[in-house]
Amino acid sequence: MSSKFRAGRGAALIGVTVAALAIDLVLRTRTPPGVAELTGLIYVPVIALAACWTHRTGSARAAQRVLDAMPNATLSVDAELRITHWNPAAERMFGVSSDQAVGQVATRFIARHWLRKHPLRLPQSAEAARATAVDVVCLRADGRPFRATFSSAPLRDSAGQCVGATVLMRDEGSRHLDNRRIRQSLRGARDERDQADTSNRMKDELLATVSHELRTPLNAIYGWVEVLRHPSGQTMQSQAVDAIDRSARSLAHMVDDILDVSSLATGKLRLERALVDLERIVHDVTVTMQTMANTEGVTLTSSMSAPTGMLLADGERLRQMLTNLVSNAIKFTPRGGHVEVSLEQDARWLRLSVIDSGQGIAPEFLPHVFDAFRRESDAPVSPRRGLGLGLSIVRHIAELHGGSVEVASRGVGTGSRFTVRLPYDRPATNLLSPDARVVPTHPSTVLQGQRILLVDDDDPSRESLAAALRTLGAEVREVGSGQEALAALHESMPSVVLSDLAMPDGDGFWLARQLREVFAARGSQPDVPLVAVTAHADNALRRQALSEGFGAYVAKPVELRSLARQILTLTSR
Fold it and tell me: 22 — phi, psi (to 5°)?
């Protein structure tokens, strides 16, 4: 009877073990990360039954076979944490045989840093011997650490006293890595979402800012146009023209800034280096900005102590950089204030400084002065605050030249100083670029004697530019396509051709090729310079135009004095 009873309990133990294994396999594939390790708890009753029946019935051999068959590492320890049983799964997990493990203290197989934080309790009572799903860092035979979880149940003797514990362990290394990858993926997804939210917010803020800043000069243009249309507005014609001119230039400047920032962001902004005179650029910008300074009631001066201001650089970009700095200084300097532009030189650097007595910059905002679209939140509203791109463009232009820009201010109300450092390599003075030539001009006769063929399919654009050129004394013939321009060239040869690039009936590139063929048929080189006048302010298109035979590239809206300088330079060769 006793043997039948023991056999029945052994069969029951095996049945419970098989059931636990099946449940574990099912739950492990269906439970989410962080919860799957808890499925090991289903083996705890098996361990407890095996431990109990082993000591109560003496059927240690049958119970041991059950524990050895378990897929998870199972070991038993005595009250001093010495290993008394070590199943095959534990051998595979740790790389240590049962003979080597039995008799060792269990803490040998646990990482020291984990033990320092989580010292093990001796299983000298049922309470101390019981644990559920505890994370632990274990050590393999070769010393490599790995993550595991363990659960334990007390081992009792025939008198019911706790004499140790039976421990179930599961290797969670791969699951830990999976969980870490999941956490990293979630963190990455959150970061990407935050970046997307930030980008969307910045985009909305940019669109709102651009809308506001573009509408301000447009409103002025619309208003003055209505004044000019009214019969009583003729007496205000001069004031209206000046206001429209300022507003149009402001619009052009903002569009240029947006395009420049786009080119900088995509790495497409390239410098067209030549030998330029920085002293001349300082003089020209100071003279140009004098009108704005006088209007704002600000004194604008310049001082130059550099022995020579010659350097290899992109003259137009340096002019743009200095204009941005001076415009910014005037903008935030109150009436009665002072702005000074200085140029100094040492052994290796040219230092270009713009000093103002304006509102100054708060210390906490100084690190963000050159960030795009950043404007000091408590800065007073100015009618020409702009898009917040000018200083960012200044920094990029300086860095593209191998230099740097820095700002200094003692705080609000103390003014500011912007300093650009440009590398100076003592270039030869006989390499002066055409842009550095001084063009003696009088406003009404600068283009006297110039016969200009103007090619543009947009009637308003062509007519307005032709009228402007005629005010400088030029003789202008207007045509609307490349085909018409070719016919006009056969009738009479102009001194210069100004051509748009994008036209439906023979574009500017087609016209350049036809012009080369005409002169080739005559057995001579083309002696009529071509100037591209286009709304596409793109460096790649500019390089293409210059390679196709155009002598200069002018982006719309056209700065008339700059165009006149280009025409005189090309026709004087």
Answer: -65, -45
What 8-state DSSP symbol labels residue 97?
A: -
CA–CA separation, 120 and 102 (whole Å): 18
- Mean pLDDT rounded to a whole number for the chain: 78
DSSP reduced 3-state for 420: strand
Closest C-alpha among 416, 291, 415, 419 to residue 349:
419
Tens digits of per-residue pLDDT, 165-189? 989 888 887 676 677 778 788 888 8
Residue 434's CB: how many other CB atoms inside 10 A?
A: 16
425 phi and psi, to 5 degrees? -120, 20
Tell me the helix, strand and coil percentages in the chain, rounded to 5.
50, 20, 30
Angle at 535 between CA 529 and CA 538, to 5 degrees: 85
Strand-pair partners of 154: 165
Cα 146 from Cα 127, distance rounded (Å): 27
For residue 123, is pLDDT > 80? yes
Residue 483, CA distances (Å) to 454, 507, 512 in order: 13, 9, 12
* Residues contacting residue 292 through CB under 8 Å, at least 6 positions apart: 327, 330
- According to DSSP, the β-strands at 83-86 and 451-455 are unpaired
How far apart, in whole angstroms, are the C-alpha atoms of residue 278 and residue 311? 7
Tokens of 12: 């029951």
Angle at 471 between CA 466 and CA 473, to 5 degrees: 95
Token pair listed for 278: 């920085």
Instruction: Determine the 3-state secondary structure of 67 from DSSP.
Output: helix
Assessment of whether the complete model's pTM goes beyond 0.85:
no
Percent of the chain with pLDDT over 70: 75
* AA letter at 180: R
- Least confident residue range of 30-39, 113-122, 136-145: 30-39
- How many angstroms separate the CA atoms of 236 and 228, rounded? 8
Q: Phi and psi of 133, rounded to 5°?
A: 50, 60
Structure-token pair, residue 85: 């049983």
User: What DSSP line would sit under 539-564, residue for residue?
Assistant: HHHHHHHHHTT-SEEEESSP-HHHHH
* Closest of 452, 487, 481 to residue 567, by C-alpha: 452
Distance CA 365, CA 332 (A): 15
